[in-house]
Amino acid sequence: MSSFKRLNNLVGWVVFAIAAVVFLLTLEPTAPFWDCGEFTACAYKLLVPHPPGAPTFLILGRLISLFSFGDPTRVPVLVNALSALSSAFTVLFLFWIITRMGRKLLVARSEFETETPEPTSYQTLLILGAGIVGALSFAFSDSFWFNAEESEVYAMSSLCTAAVVWIMMKWEEHARDADSDKWLILIAYVIGLSIGVHLLNLLALPALAFIYYYRRTKNPNLVGGLVTLAVSLVIVGSVLVGIIPGLPTLAGGFEVFFVNTIGLPFDSGLIIFLLLFVGLIWFGFRLSYQRRSQLLNTAMLCFVFILIGYSTYLIVPIRSSFHPTINENDPEDVLSFVSYLKREQYGSRPLLYGPQFNAQPDHYEEGAPRYKRENGKYVEILPRAQEPGYADADKMLLPRLYSYDPAHIQEYKKWVPDLQEGTKPTMGQNLGFLFRYQIGHMFWRYFFWNYVGRESDIQQAGVVWPGSPSAATLPPRIGGSFAHNNFFAIPLILGLIGLFVQLRRRGHDALVVGLLFLFTGIAIVVYLNQPPIEPRERDYTFCGATFAYAIWIGLGVIGLGQLLAAALKADNARAGVAIVLGLLSPTILLAQGWNDHNRTGRYNSVDSARNLLNSCAPNAILFTNGDNDTFPLWYAQEVEGIRTDVRVAVLSYLNTDWYIQQMKRRAYLSQGLPISMNDNTYAQGNNDMLPFSPNPAVDSLDLKQFISLVGQGSPLLKYSDGNYSTMTFPTPKFFLNVDTAAVKKLGIIPKDREKQLVSRLDWSMGKKAIEKKNLVILDMIATNNWKRPIYFSSTVAPSDYMNLQPYFQLEGMAYRLLPLRDPNYDRRGDEGYVEKSICYDELMHKFQYRGLNNASVFYDENNLRFPANYRDKFARLANSYLAAGDMAKAKEVANKCLDVMPDNAVPFDYYTPQLVPVLVAVGEKDKANAILDKLTERSINILSYYQTHDGALFDDAQRSYLLTLQSVYQAAAQVHDEARAKKAYEVLAPYLQERSQ
Predict the structure, then answer these.
(1) C-alpha dihedral (459, 464, 470, 472), degrees to nearest 10
(2) Which of 44, 569, 576, 588 has its CA at a distance of 20 to 30 angstroms from the CA of residue 621?
(3) 238 by DSSP, 3-state: which?
(4) What is the Cα–Cα distance from 671 to 645, expressed in whole angstroms?
(5) Mind listing the pLDDT tens digit for each residue in 460-512?
(6) Residue range 751-777: average pLDDT?
(7) Are residues 812 and 839 in contact, defined by beta-carbon separation less than 8 angstroms?
(8) Mean pLDDT throughout 843-856?
(9) Can you tell me the distance from the alpha carbon of 55 to that of 87, in angstroms, rounded to the nearest whole number?
(10) Residue 273: how many CA atoms within 13 Å on its side-chain side?
(11) Are 164 and 235 in contact (CB under 8 A)?
């Protein structure tokens, strides 16, 4: 081994170690929000997560979780560490990619030499310096570092991309060797494995194809390049469509044919397909040997190794067949597995040709058939899903303005001001949205976050350019945010230098890197066709593009070395200065990014899950939203075994038949949910929506009778026009009789509420259609007879409470449904009676608030939502004690809230002013005034800022601060602080007037 190779390997591993240490030191100690809780739980027990799954990631997560040695609290750290180590290996491969490209820039090799000549000491310094600067700049870039800290698939996906690029360069180096095709086969295997992580890796194939083309072609030309691009896209399409869903779809067709038509037993068609498929593979290899075709043999080997990697997906139907506790979509057979792979539950977006947002469907097309096993046959589940169809006049090429959601249309108008409802958008308007929003706002903004600077963690935050106002002059929520990072565009400038140098000296290599940048950046934007509103920032999707640009950042060191030639004649000194200047890039990225990427001490997600579960009585049923409301709960129950007697029911999933069936089964300490209607009643296509069909003869509906009629498919509730038939409800008024004697025996009525027990619940469902999830909840309420506690998470949308709030009792972080009605409810108008003794015990003693009083811990916008929920409950409890005349308890609760979530750690929010009346009443006026003054000043500053900085983009943020200011005004008015109330109102008035017009 040459001295350069030894140094290259050694320095590469040092760079790996630096990145790994940083990532492990800043690792989140628990399962973070979003999909991380689900992935951690599913990795720990090899469960089935949301489509299309990530089996490779889960298997590796399961392996690393074994090092917890029985301590479940170590599991999330270990699975997070899997991402950290994946990211560190990505940095290692990037280092070697950059040094390989740098060596090609500096050290020429003739076509007769089998190896590149040994670099000089000057060249070695520049090459290794380029690798260090580029690799560490990427390591400490915003989006990549974010992915490295949590148990999501994007870090491992980046590793797969880096690996295949590096392997392709190894092939390029050894292309003349007789066994060089082994590198191509290895790439195929990694691609197969990466399918079980994320499909982003496939987008590297066009760049790899051009490496192959330039190495194999003596005189490359435009035609050859276009053919290479076309072939690479065909390969991508073949894997994306032909292999991933195509092979299972074909197997499903065999299965249905041989079972339904030939009459063979279940799985016979699948076995026959596998035998034929293996036979075809054998025939392909035999043909390659007969014809002595290395190309065909290599292609067959690549195909087989993709399948070997892809075989990790077998874990999905295998585990699903055992009916695990998390089993999304229930893909236990080949037919349901195809639906799982195709992500059919999420619907689709138009891509190259489709309807625009004003299009009206003129017909409906039947969706793909769904089957169930019945009497030895596959019986189609009817009716099929109906897909809207559109006339060609309502369609357009590359439809970007496609969503008919009214909220989306209003957002479209922010980016395309001359857009008119009822008028088909022009292609200019359509492309305007593509370039301004989808590419400009949702790609370039993210790209510049990584290599120029980021304004804050507030959604829609912009870029901090050189010359932008200093942090001290900005509102504290922006300038004082840990996420306010200013890199002075140093990484961007260094990358531009590297791009220029590579274009000038190695144009073919620059094209390869450019294709990698294009396909992992702009191409993703076009493919995703993002709507104008996203629940969170999507920058983590585009790490492939920042990876590609980091190559140019590294090569920028070589460019600096050349630029310094006139000033410094000594080669080694010039290389040293270039490296020092280049190191400014990763140094400033590390220094600016440390505090907002350091997640140590952050326990908010798991504590919120634990606290919500502990809000429930034993054997409870808890209705939650998806994602952040549910995934931490799944982690808490599946991994740490917290409150497995509580059955978590996700409202959005209750609209699906597979989930309802699962909810009927026992899970750990929880019995199945009390659902009376059979599976056919809840089958997809049946009772998905029950529209309101008024019948003046029906004044109100007995809930139990209604559920019985729906279960029977009674004609009394059925509407039919000859072509269409559906169950309806004739009146919005519902009632449920209560056996008060039986309820008293259950011991569920608090002593202070015994007089509030009612013999009948009366409420209105409203005139909107009853969704399947609401029907399931009504079924449970009618069937349960108050035997199991039923709770709604306090974060659930009020529309899902179905107007049952008069019968809600607040217990910690959840509302319990009870046959009790507070006589003061109508006057209060809130969402439930505060049961003080229970709430006090939970909020003051049982709940955990780890890290929320630590000002050094960074809580981004998502992490601040749950502390706001805590403040709401503290304020309601404190005000309840105040209303009851218990000043001591009111003061204790208010001060506890301020102690566990001080302003310097978790900034005061909308709910904090609700503590003001309590603080004033108990003699803590200074604290009350501090809350009012701080929030007033902050709101004024940030509202003024948004007025001059694309305020329309920050409607949600502005609305939040306007509501906070309104809360300040109400609190000040309530305690008769006229001066502070007037100040808040004077700021509010122009906005209120503007919105009323």
Answers:
(1) 20
(2) 44
(3) helix
(4) 8
(5) 888 999 988 888 888 888 999 999 999 999 999 999 999 999 999 999 999 99
(6) 93
(7) yes
(8) 95
(9) 19
(10) 19
(11) no
As separate numbers, helices (DSSP H) first and strands (DSSP E) second, the chain gives 40, 21
pLDDT tens string 559-591: 999 999 888 888 899 999 999 999 999 999 999
How far is 308 from 296, CA to CA, in rounded Å? 18
Tokens of 415: 């980016």
Q: What is the rounded CA–CA span in Å between residue 206 and residue 410?
A: 38
pLDDT category at 1 given cuts 50, 70, 90 is low
CB under 8 A, 24+ apart: contacts of 313-319 = 313/53, 313/55, 313/195, 313/196, 313/341, 314/55, 315/46, 315/55, 315/58, 315/59, 316/48, 316/53, 316/55, 316/340, 319/46, 319/47, 319/48
Q: Any idea what DSSP says for residue 627?
A: G
Please give the Cα distance from 958 to 935 (Å, whole number). 14
Do the beta carbons of residue 245 and residue 348 sit within 8 Å? no
Q: Which residue has the higher pLDDT, 720 or 619?
A: 619
Mean pLDDT for the chain overall: 91
Confidence class of residue 113 from pLDDT cuts 50, 70 and 90?
Answer: very low
Residue 645 burial by Cβ neighbours in a 10 Å radius (0-12, 13-18, 19+): middle
Residue-level pLDDT at 109? 63
Answer for the pair 791, 816: CB distance below 8 angstroms, yes or no.
yes
Chain centroid to Cα 736, Å, comes to 40
Distance between CA atoms of 573 and 554, rounded to whole angstroms? 18
- Predicted pLDDT of residue 876: 95
Q: Is the pLDDT of residue 966 over 50?
A: yes
How high is the pLDDT of residue 13? Answer: 97
Q: What is the band of 546 on the pLDDT scale with cuts at 50, 70, 90?
A: very high
pLDDT tens per residue across span 907-961: 999 999 999 999 999 999 999 999 999 999 999 988 888 887 766 677 777 888 8
∠ CA 739-741-742, nearest 5°, is 70
Best CA proximity match to 557, nearest among 124, 15, 130:
130
Q: Round to the nearest angstrom and report the end-to-end CA distance of the chain.
A: 77
Q: What is the spatial distance between Cα 557 and Cα 122, in angstroms, rounded to a whole number?
A: 12
Q: What are phi and psi of 426, to 5 degrees?
A: -75, 165
Single-letter residue type at 617: A
963-990 b/e (C-beta count within 10 Å ≥ 16 → b):
ebbbbbbebbeebebeebbebbbebbee
Q: What single DSSP character describes residue 667?
A: B
Provide the strand spans (E) within 684-769: 689-690, 701-702, 718-720, 725-727, 733-737, 760-764
Two structure tokens written together for 708: 């019985």
Residues facing residue 653 across a β-bridge: none
- SS3 of 843, please? helix
Q: From CA 139, how far away is CA 145, in angstroms rounded?
A: 6
Q: Is the pLDDT of residue 114 over 60?
A: no
pTM of the entire structure? 0.92
The predicted model gives 359-380 an average pLDDT of 83
Token representation of residue 658 = 């597979």
Residue 407: CB atoms within 10 Å: 11
| Nearby residues of 917 by Cβ (< 8 Å), 6 or more positions away | 879, 882, 971, 974, 975
Contact 626, 653 (CB under 8 A): yes
Q: Does the bond joining 383 to the residue before it have cis omega, within 30 degrees of 0?
A: yes
Pull the structure tokens for residue 371.
């089957």
DSSP assignment of 519-568 equals: HTTHHHHHHH---S--SS--GGGGHHHHHHHHHHHHHHHHHHHHHGGGT-
Which residue in the block uniquely carries the two structure tokens 């760049």?
207
Q: To the nearest 5 percent, what fractions of the chain are helix, strand and coil?
A: 60, 10, 30
How many residues are given for the chain?
997
